[in-house]
Amino acid sequence: MILRWSGRRRFLPLFLRIANGAIPETSEENAAYEATLSLAPFLNDSRAARRTVLRHASDPSSDRARRAAILTLATANSPWSRRVLERMHGRDDEATGFVRNALAHRPCRPGTIFVEWFGIEGQNYSKCEPPPDFR
Question: Which listed residue, of 1, 57, 120, 132, carries a Cα 20 to 30 Å from 23's Cα?
Answer without folding.
Answer: 132
